[in-house]
Amino acid sequence: GWPVTPEQAHAALDDFIAHRLPEFGRWQDAMWSGQPFLWHSLLSTALNLKLLDPRTVIAATVAAYESGRVPLAAAEGFIRQILGWREFVRGVYGRQMPALAEANQYAHATPLPAWFWTGRTGAACLAAAIGQTLEHGYAHHIQRLMVTGNFALLAGIAPRQVADWYLAVYVDAVAWVEEPNTLGMALNAWPGMTSKPYCASGAYIDRMSDYCRSCRYSPKTRVGPGSCPFTTLYWDFLARHRDRFAANPRMAMPLKNLDRLGDTELTAIRHQATSLRADLDGV
User: Is the confidence at residue 1, as pLDDT, over 90?
Assistant: First the structure.
């Protein structure tokens, strides 16, 4: 299902422009069970293997917008991924390697859970994102950032192990693209790529997907039986690194919400989070 020649890559570009780009802007961050591709372009492999020139992709997108076939939000949102973020990542890799490869600002050292290689976990969002990854070699940017990456950050998994997993499982995982996106953005292991860690509780996943409907965990529950691992680990992550985040204005609201938790609940959260990290294979 992936282009292996320039001709196939251009056909894939035409297919995206005609059938999925018009809705890309509205739904680029959405996740849905049984729908691994949604409105995404599926062009990253062709771009990273140099079957498509990024300028060709941008020109086709601009032409579709100027002809009235796609709205501004769709064209702008997609071009921003290619011309903005992708080229920024290229610059980060060129300037920060090889030190970036071993970045680990939080000193995270928990081993990668075995279910990253099977998808057999009770967390529906992780099972969906990893399951489609193992089947198709693909997950879109929000699944990588806010599901697998977010969990790895909150759980304190060793960044190098996570980065090696990303490099192994994705068909578009050329090192210069994958290393900064994984180590810099998703895991925040190197602090120079984003102004804040991209972490969130289960509430974010519930808002952006239907995964939580079929999950044994409750995204709104912070502690106790049935509480969502993302939610428990999120509040624990903020508490563990409170001093580090105190001077960051973009973390002011999360820390204010952390302060609303009572001492008894926060102690219980931290105790449960410690137990979770000690047995991630059981998630």
Answer: no
